[in-house]
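Standup notes
- HV: blocked on the assembly model, inputs below
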Amino acid sequence: MRHIPVEPPAFFHRGPSPFARLAFFGLLSIVLLFADTRYRYLESVRQAVAIVLYPLQRAVQMPGEALSYVATYFSSQRTLAEDNAALKRQLVAEASAVQGYPLLQQENARLAGLLDLRSRYGAAATAVEVLYTSRDPFAQKVFVDKGTDTGILPGQAVIDADGVVGQVTRVYPMMAEVTLLTDKDHAVPVRVLRSGVRSVLFGSGAGRLPELRFTAPNADIEIGDVLVTSGIDGTYPPGLAVAKVETLERDTGQVFARIAARPIAGADRSRHLLVLAQAVSLPPQPDEPAGIDAVKRGKGKSRRGG
Amino acid sequence: MAMRKVPPLTPARPEEILLAVRPWFIPLTLFVAFLGNLLPASGSGQVLRPDFVALVLLYWCLHEPRYVGVGSAWMIGLLMDVGDATQFGQHALAYAVLAFGADFFRRRVLRFSLWQQAAQVALLLMLCAGIVLVIRVVGGAPLPRWTYVVPSLVGALLWPLVSVMLQWPQRPPLSPAER
């Protein structure tokens, strides 16, 4: 009688079944998802992998950069002349405002000195270039070509020539991730330039305009109003243009008005951006008197936005 | 010895016996697909761009299950998570499920012609995108617009091309009678 082996020959060994593998790696993924979103344990791993990926990302950029370089090189004399003329006209148009500026600045410095205010900004800024936009359709993020090597820190404001673009949210050694105004998790404290009404502009995700939430229906806001940063969060310096009110619905049945505003900066178009160093130092929060402390313990402590 | 004549860039005929895949060719194609995913895009490019890594991964999971499976798909997903700055584990889970789905339907999918395969590939790619969607929506993201399914469909349309291209190095040289 021939002996029949109990074990199948080694040829058929393929390790655990695909389902067992899926269960193992699926669980591992879910653990990772929790560890990353809840506790941010894995930032150093991400940084390390990002360093390895960086040369690849730059390499992939190159053909496009070369193309645009060639296109610029061959842009006709006429376009350049037209651009030059337009820029000169713009320069003259803005000359009066610019000439008045040093005087105003001087006056402002004197007044501020009188009032003993700390100087608000005028701090260093870093010019950066957009490398690429995130492929993630759920978030509105771009990556720029400078990171910790030039002293960029998370939380710094990012602007372009027209206004606020967003905020640095994650910094890699040679790259930084900028969350745009339109991202769903992004909020900017703003002020209506015309009337001074304060509010907060919340992003609503791709393809939707950011909204001014929690604004009373009778607030003094009109279509076309320009929103500028109010500076009360300590992140954005005050007075930067943010958005223009585009739609406005006042429904007396609702507690708040529905206001949508279109970002003024080309949040998803501009290539060259400026990262502003944080120079706004808010005074430390005053200590609450000891007696009130016990009463207020149940309520939220911090009232500062940001 | 007869000179090696390269076969045309067409789907392999059923009677052809494919050569063994070169082991370095699989990582190389996955690497190229990864670069494709890192390409900068804006506007309509961003809406249309398929997930090249998922597509190539799916091809190898279907054709070479002994080299590429759930585990390697998971690792590539982790790399993709860093490249896209998404949460760790999101692409990893999606690609692992994709690899499992490929293994599950492998014997069925490969019986069909390339265009019929593409229809099934579309479903698998949508499954992959659906997992990402669920993870993000549970995490608090808003529902995306309908264009969210477009990359999966574009990926399925590219399937015949990708299949022919990835299979080409494995096709045997033509015999003298066929030249």
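- HV (later): unblocked. Residues 298-306 of chain A have pLDDT under 50 and may be disordered. Chain A touches chain B through 49 residues (CB under 8 Å).
- Next: hand off to the docking folks.
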